[in-house]
């Protein structure tokens, strides 16, 4: 049985039944939290029962999700998540830390974290009989929806800004979505999507606006805790742990890290993570909710600005950053994203484009992880926080890497420099190597 009870508005705390609303609070437009029956989950599910799951994907957590059927075995819908959590001793030592992990969500089927949200939204669309699904996207959410919709044999319509990196647009097209590039910003594409969904009766996946996106994203919090339980077990001392079941770990409790760093655009990833950790805490499966650190680009810092002002009122900015995935004028999940930091003792930090490029290079050279700018921003954030003493040397820290570097090779070349061209002769090679 599904534990899905209904929704609670994140602004006015009004509660709605499962079928009373579809997107946001009718009273004030606030984003809705999905309400789950944690009592029944506690009675019927445990870390030990999840450990027995044969699913190496987000669907091992199906009993904690508001959908009943992932749909379509053997397709990308079923292979999302359970991405590796690497212990990074080199970067830890560079930063004066001892317990640093990187969670590489660039390893998802369409190469970004957004697969988690789109898989759950598509499962929901199937349950409610929605046919066409539309989303606005800076690129990754659209690629994820296009991929998941292709797997489920459902039409998808994607509106992205015309400035989206070509690799992301290519993905949208290859997955067979109806792709429309908007001569405007992501925010304008977002508003146009809402109008189109209403006018044409389509189901809208828009980040934050659709309550099921955060439900997909919270699975990364579950994975971090389950996988950390494996990596913290002394018998498992390998550096690269590709988890394959938490054998040897405590059957009752999972380990939460002390802090998690994640980049923030609309703010739905960080609010999804917050919900996931809170649920595990309320279930008694982890001893504490980690401090959540939201990292924004200085050129797109609406939530960080509100954090710095100590205010819950988020003012739009004019976004301008090379980290296209977090380039957002008005974050659509800003309030919950802000509270993810303020309610956990975390913080918001901003990083420059130059720091993001340095982070891409550091991740590549020191750990062979290839991240797109928005993902590397989270690493630039821990560099800053470690330098400022905002985390302790013994803290267990997870950096969430949300998208693959193959998504934006132009930025990668900016980070790494161009390769030299020579004539095919040994002397020419010697000259260049000297
Ligand atoms: C790679 C990557 N990182 C981070 C984010 C930020 O997520 P959110 O907009 O939910 O804050 C996105 C969103 O598109 C993304 O694609
Ligand atoms: Zn409300």
Describe the structure.
With 434 residues, the protein is α/β, with parallel strands linked by helices. The protein contains 16 helices and 14 strands. Helix 4 packs across helix 5 (140-151), helix 11 packs across helix 12 and helix 13 (353-367) crosses helix 15 (409-416).
Mean pLDDT over the full residue set: 93
Q: Strand arrangement, largest sheet?
A: 10-4-5-14-11-12-13
Radius of gyration equals 21 Å
How much of the sequence is in beta strands? Answer: 5-15%
Q: Span between N and C termini?
A: 67 Å
> Which ions, cofactors or small ligands are bound in this entry?
pyridoxal-5'-phosphate, zinc ion
Topology of this structure?
Layout lengths: L3 E6 L5 E3 L14 E5 L1 H7 L2 H5 L33 E3 L1 H7 L3 E6 L9 H15 L4 E4 L3 H12 L4 E6 L4 H9 L3 E5 L3 H15 L2 E2 L6 H7 L1 H13 L8 E2 L17 E5 L4 H16 L7 E7 L4 H8 L24 H9 L4 E5 L1 H15 L5 H15 L8 E6 L7 H8 L9 H8 L1
Helix pairs in contact: 4-5, 4-8, 5-6, 8-10, 9-10, 10-12, 11-12, 13-14, 13-15
